[in-house]
Amino acid sequence: MSIQDDIKAQITKNKVMLYMKGSPDFPQCGFSANAINILRECGVTEIASCNVLENPEIRQGIKAFSNWPTIPQLYVNGEFVGGSDIVSEMYQSGELQKILK
Which residue of 22, 37, 67, 84 could cross-link 27, Cys pair, CB 3.0 to 4.6 Å? Predict the structure, then answer.
């Protein structure tokens, strides 16, 4: 399996998938911490995550997969939602809460 296949499988298998720096309990950058905090504020209790700092192949692969240059990257129901800024904007407008239900 290629790294792209691995990423596709992770995104398909998990309702909420976050590619981040660190883990939900120990985020290692402010943007990743912001994404986790927003998801928790939305009542999400099951967050699948992948620490891109532990796997350089996934770190580069997810950027190519989504055609998005930064980490974190949030996927919900198999669809790319966005990075930290977009997640914040969607949360403030109430749009994120709708797609997480």
Answer: 22
